[in-house]
């Protein structure tokens, strides 16, 4: 700052003023938005507004003209130690109008008002007229972009103002007694005028006393034109420069009394309270010689300046993008994110939220479970949610399926998959949801009626394969057991994490399918997304499982865990023989789907927090007392809940080498023959899979199938 | 306000547990809140601490408000600032400089203006805004705050923490008053950060109890603010606490000698 002038001859030094920096509080933009929407609408006429400048900043802060939310109440009170500044708001309706408005004319017009106030002596009676501002704005309320440009008009002398005596602090020229005398006199002036800050005043000081007076009392107060001191309430903190408000005062003095004045002394009154102690000693005092005004300056308004430079130091407007704090959609997103971050900051510092929120989830089924899973996923900040369902919403659905309403049932009902997507967007616009109305081919449900049905089934299979490939976690939430078979096979083959949930009347299961080890051949392109290190293992497929009492095993690693079908001794496709939980969503206790849906998501999140992801060793009920493997706790294989007892157990079971869905022979057949193999499964009776896997033979060997069932009173 | 519905007001819990009324000395009714604020403001005025009472138009409601300025240490985090600068540049109105700038070159040159002050040369200036409101649900004061750059753009909570209050971050994470959420200001409808009051009673009770036992006069708002304020960078000069005017009506209800003997738990 001082560096600019230091190299010049000090006798030639010209006074420079620190310009205002515009300072807008967040509330100002909110209020402008309200005004534009409710009051101004398309009215572009100038509006009176109000800002203020503050005296008492610590050194280093820019000299500011601040506009608060209260800026629109032009005659409202100003904060303590602040000088109000009246301004004119020009709010344009279009960016084009903002750009093309004649800034030069606006400045000239405002300057002319100041100049006229000087000529008419109005400014002498009310010196606050000397300091005013213009604000040109355009509010793009679709994008929440606000364009603005401030102008602080200052009348210019045709030549610079010569400094005769460099600024020094008040402490250097005033004795402590004079200092306290000045402070007391200034305070009295404020009380007399009923304001908390008088912007301009006259000073007389001698060893004995310090007096102050209002500008309008010049004639009676000033007796010696060679010893005139003017005071300005100075918002600037720079030791060598006055702030902007002084500038037009000097023009007024030059205009009124210039020719008679010799040296003019300026006292920049600075008033700071630190820890309860008030101080004005850092005020600055200097002497100038005002240029003589040209004759024309008293007949024609002189040149003026004042448009604020932008942050780059160029003459141009500013733009602030407030979409983050004003756009309701952005607000919703940031609030959701913040709540999750707070959970991490406060409770689980090691929580890896990105791993959760970036997970792409495929929900097969948009019924009671699907609705609850989707909502819990949103609670975790998951953004990518895809539904697959072929059903339409019926009258019984909305009371249990929380994404639907009565209206959705009318006219035959909307497709669940698309209605669910619409609702998610309404709940949280930041979600990226997709819906696919399609049926999933099932074992024992022939597709070979016609070429068309075969081709449709093939398309459905390809579509499902594509969806599973594109997502990270596959939720099986359908209401039939058979429909879970195909996605189980595809996901196992593609090494995707599967979370499966099924409901009984008052019992449920939530489980993760075992995640097979990465295939040795295609490590390049399809390493599983839910594993921390694809290189962690030998490439052998799951070891053959030993059948008996699998659930009593402990420490089963993720790649040896069973799937939904592993505990079955019958192939899917024949519901009458199925004795496990399933297929009864509509008659389950209404709270069950919420519990199971929530647990399904929480299980996923816990797995994602484990360093080994889907390969994590299954926690069991016994581990409840041990050090948990993740920041969120246990990572079980299954959660089986018994609502009648309000109890959950955490069994773990091995993959079954004769499983009709995840055994090696099934996966091999699928990977080798693709749709040919699948269509055989769809078209055949369940014995096809049982023969293939060796279940048929097993049946012959043992008559007691009951041991594979997970019955209620099993002790685990 | 979802948060308010979720949490059971602690007073109800206490009432249901038939806890003696003197336990509720940790609560503040609205009238006492106003009285505390009045005394608080008087002291603020004497210090020029900048607090003022804002009344809401056409309503009896209001809140204490203070603004403060600081320079951000955000420069130490180059990623953020460059990202921000990029944002500004990408949607840059200055690219249209020719149409937007002043045509007359002479108007752009001003010998009288000090021009070597570039914004940001001494760090980013941040405006902080603090509001103290009364919560009827919790019967405690609640601190709302936000921070913005000089163009009025609000900072994210992470920015706020990164820029100024790093020494309190640990405390914020571990302390009992660590409940910051983003909420609409109940009187202004604008987005603010809130130090949620659900735990206020928890840390105020021992303080109020101790004051009670020592027969000290305590201004609830002062005591509360000196605990929660520093967490979000709000400086509360010590003299607020040391110069407590002995105003009996600002003590808390049902305090009589018998109450003192009742031990809290
Ligand atoms: Zn299996």
Task: Report the total helices of chain A.
Answer: 21
Estimate the strand proportion of chain B.
Answer: 15-25%
Mean pLDDT of chain A: 87
**What is Rg of chain A?**
40 Å
Bound molecules: zinc ion
Biased composition (Polar residues) (chain B): 87-105
Family (chain B): Belongs to the ATG10 family.
GO molecular function, one term (chain B): ubiquitin-like protein transferase activity
Protein name (chain B): Ubiquitin-like-conjugating enzyme ATG10
What tags apply to this protein structure?
heterodimer, A: 716 residues, alpha/beta, eight-stranded mixed sheet, 21 helices, disordered C terminus, B: 265 residues, alpha+beta, six-stranded antiparallel sheet, 37% helix, disordered N terminus, binds zinc ion
Give the gist of this structure.
With 716 residues, chain A is of the alpha/beta class. Chain A has 21 helices and 24 strands.
Write up this protein.
Chain B: InterPro entries: Atg3/Atg10 (IPR007135). Chain B: Residues 87-105 have a biased composition (Polar residues). The complex is a heterodimer of chains A (716) and B (265). In chain A, 30% of the residues lie in helices and 19% in strands. Chain B has a domain at 29-198. In chain B, a hairpin with a 6-residue loop joins β5 (180-184) and β6. Chain B is of the alpha+beta class. The chains are: A alpha/beta (716), B alpha+beta (265). At the A-B interface, β1, α2, α4, β6 and β16 of A face α3, β2, α5, α6 and β3 of B. The complex binds zinc ion. Zinc ion binds next to loops of chain A. Zinc ion is lined by residues 562-563, 565-566, 655-656, 659, 661-662 of chain A.
